[in-house]
Specification:
This protein has about 140 residues and is α/β, with parallel strands linked by helices. Helix content is about 25%, strand content about 30%. The protein starts with 5 loop residues before the first strand and ends with a helix.
Amino acid sequence: MYQQMIFVNLATNDLDASKKFFTGLGYEINAQFSDDTTASIPLSDTIVVMVHTPQKYREFTKKEIVDSTKSSEVLIALSAESREKVDELVEKAVAAGGSVSGETQDHGFMYGRAFDDVDGHTFEVVWMDPAAVQG
């Protein structure tokens, strides 16, 4: 069965720092689709973050590129397999140069935290109790 993919394209002011940040989270750079203007970072078989220099990013849009340290252009939500994995990824993000964003959300059946990467893009990490998801 066909698996639709999601490519999250983000602008970065420092491609090397962004690559270091994502590898600090435990992800790898896909060299086949990376160069001196872009880093391809698979998060899963169906989700890939594409980080581009501003010059490269401008090839994809005529719109102004926001300053993600001052404005929010997107919230990227990632699932986690447990509460502990939520905390682990946020802790890795902080250790890699990111920062905690917002307050921890604990609703019992759902637990989430968020972090900003080195460019200010916000990633939410959420665990949901499988029993609650099934209804």
